[in-house]
Amino acid sequence: MWGAAASLTGGLLFSIVMYQTGALPNIAGIVGGSSPALGLAVHLLISLLIGMSYGLLFRRKSRDVGEGVAWGMVYGLLWWFVGHLTLFPVLLGKSLAWTTEAANLGLPSLVGHLSYGAATALAYFVLKRHHAQWLRLDPRLAAREERLLRPAGTPAPALWFFVLLLGTLLPILLG
Question: What DSSP line would sit under the chain, residue for residue?
Answer without folding.
Answer: -HHHHHHHHHHHHHHHHHHHHT-HHHHHGGGT---HHHHHHHHHHHHHHHHHHHHHHSTTT-SSHHHHHHHHHHHHHHHIIIIIIIIHHHHTT-----SHHHHHHTHHHHHHHHHHHHHHHHHHHHHHHHHHHHHTTSHHHHHHHHHHSPPSS-SHHHHHHHHHHHHHHHHHHH-
